[in-house]
Amino acid sequence: MLVLLVLVAGIAWTVGATDGEADPVAGSTTSSVPAQAELPSAGVVVVPPGGVAINDSPAGAVLQTVGAGLVLPYAVVDDEWLEVTTTCDEPAWLRADDVDVSGQADPGVAGPGFDLASAVVVIDPGHGGPWPGAVGPTGLSEKIPNLDIADRVRALLGTGHDIDWSTGEIALGGTYPPVASVFMTRDPDAVENGDFEAKLGYRAAVADAAGADALVSIHNNTVPKGSRSSPGTQVFHSVGAAGSDRLGTLLHQEVHDALAVFDVAWSGLADLGARGYTDAQGGDYFTVLSGGTPAAIVEGMYLSEPEEEALLREPSVRQAYAEGVYRGLVRFLTTNDWGTDPLPTIPWPGASPGSPSADGCVVPSAG
Ligand SMILES: [Zn+2]
């Protein structure tokens, strides 16, 4: 009954919004939040089919109707209204009753005894929309394999598996149960098939608001410094969020080893491994890693090189990359292992980041 009352009040408040299209499935899901006073104080929302209106203030002017499948973090509640961060890293308000609300989880302590079935993981496919990332010699945009690899990681995390740690082989089984939740900052099942701009601050905010146990950003690299006998996988880990260095080394080892089965002329830097980079103030150089969630960026291979670009077009190679990320996450969450090749944290040696400006960023609209 309380749910019904909230819904009626909401209709009165948002004339002209999408209430007429209210999705009964979404409504029943959000009924786990029985009253506005009990809304979790932070969390993430998922926009249901049909989209949802976002407003400039609680019950204020409608800014637009944003598209289905967007994952929006929130950390402020005002009655039944949530202040979310849009994909353009701007504040906006929406009604909790119009969306699926997942309250902020309590992150567990990674290590032996961690309950994998309780884990919340955020997978972040790098770039998107007008920002292709690296572009290969025959025109493959990095944002495309990044999204597919991330989706494969999500599928792995969503199913129970056994892992043969001597070979790395992953099979359906019960040793490692499905995690509780996986959120993707760009979701191929979402509006625009997940191909939209997502600002770096937004990406970090999703992980923190979800109370995620880990955030992994999926990338591929450009402009190597030389040839190598094995993949030039690089990992950048957060310097501020505890556990990120261990996560980074595990991701480095597992992704490198997963890709090493492919026999091509590999490229990369001499001092590969997992490293943190600080900015001028000693904080995280990479904005996506600057939240409180254990986090790392994986640069699997060099899209700028013809042979590696060709590999990145192959579903089997994307699957191998994803399986490496999955094994790295499982080891991070359920063991005290460290991976190979930890490198000392150093100041970023280059100029300040050429982060895309907020100007021109568009939150994908419904329809
Ligand atoms: Zn990238």
In the CATH hierarchy, what is the class of the largest domain?
Alpha Beta
Small molecules (ligands, ions, cofactors) in the structure: zinc ion
- Report the CATH topology name of the largest domain: Aminopeptidase
Query: What is the strand arrangement across the widest sheet?
Result: 11-8-12-18-14-16
- Which radius of gyration do the C-alpha atoms yield? 21 Å
Tally of domains? 2
Order of helices and strands: HHEEEEEEEEHEEEHEEEHEEEEHHE
Topology:
Layout: H1 2-13, H2 24-30, E1 43-46, E2 52-55, E3 62-66, E4 71-78, E5 81-85, E6 91-95, E7 100-103, E8 120-125, H3 143-157, E9 161-164, E10 169-172, E11 181-184, H4 200-210, E12 214-221, E13 227-228, E14 234-237, H5 244-259, E15 266-267, E16 274-275, E17 277-278, E18 295-302, H6 306-312, H7 315-334, E19 346-347
Parallel strand pairs: 8-11, 8-12, 12-18, 14-16, 17-19
Antiparallel strand pairs: 1-4, 1-7, 2-3, 4-5, 5-6, 9-10, 13-15, 14-18
Helix pairs in contact: 3-7, 5-7
Zinc ion (ZN) binds at residues 126-127, 133-134, 142, 219.
Descriptive report:
With 367 residues, this protein is an alpha/beta fold. It has 2 domains: 2-102, SH3 type barrels; 116-347, Aminopeptidase, CATH 3.40.630.40. It is 24% helix and 23% strand. It contains 7 helices and 19 strands. It has helices at residues 2-13, 24-30, 143-157, 200-210, 244-259, 306-312, 315-334; strands spanning 43-46, 52-55, 62-66, 71-78, 81-85, 91-95, 100-103, 120-125, 161-164, 169-172, 181-184, 214-221, 227-228, 234-237, 266-267, 274-275, 277-278, 295-302, 346-347. The strands form 6 sheets. Strands 11-8-12-18-14-16 form a 6-stranded mixed beta sheet, with helices on both faces. A 5-stranded antiparallel beta sheet has the order 6-5-4-1-7. Helix 3 (143-157) crosses helix 7 and helix 5 (244-259) runs antiparallel to helix 7 (315-334). The protein starts with a helix and ends in a 20-residue tail after the last strand. The structure holds zinc ion. The site of zinc ion has 6 residues, from loops.
